[in-house]
Amino acid sequence: MAEAQDYRRGRHVLSALHVHLVFVTTYRRDVLNGDHIGYLRGVFASVCEDFGAHLVECDGEDDHVHLLVEYPTTVAVSALVNSLKGVSARRLRQQYRVRTHREHLWSPSCFAASCGGAPLAIIRQYVENQRTPD
Question: How big is the CA angle at 25 (ends 66 and 79), to the nearest 5 degrees?
Fold first, then answer.
């Protein structure tokens, strides 16, 4: 159970909403490296901030990234996902020469799971232990 200070407080709401997101590159191509994931971490944090959310953890491998996001009740997860994928793909292509399939970095699908059953420390440890490419 979350501590009382871990809850997000609003005018009429008290919440502790976390979502575990996984974005996969198109055709699971190995296009990401350590520099890309480090850059994406900053982009994801910036987009989350625009939504009033907080990027708790972010890491990944050469063909996918994991994100743990704490978000307010006013944010639709689908809108957050669309913005995260769109902005990150555009900014990554602007910053680096990334090999993509027809200008599509991310697969159109994603994995999203609410995090409440498992302790957040275990999910955070799982995301932190992703094998980041060199």
Answer: 65
**CATH code at position 46:** 3.30.70.1290
Backbone angles phi, psi at 98, to 5 degrees: -105, 130
Domain enclosing residue 119, as ranges:
16-128
Q: In this predicted model, what pLDDT tens digit does every residue of 48-58 receive, in sequence order?
A: 999 999 999 99
Determine the Cα–Cα distance for residues 31 and 131; give it in Å rounded to an integer. Answer: 14
- The two three-digit tokens of residue 86, written as one number: 């769109």
Q: Two tokens at 133?
A: 């490419």
Report pLDDT for 26.
93
Write out the two tokens for 24. Answer: 């996969």
Question: Structural domain tally of the chain?
Answer: 1
Residues of the chain with pLDDT under 50: 1
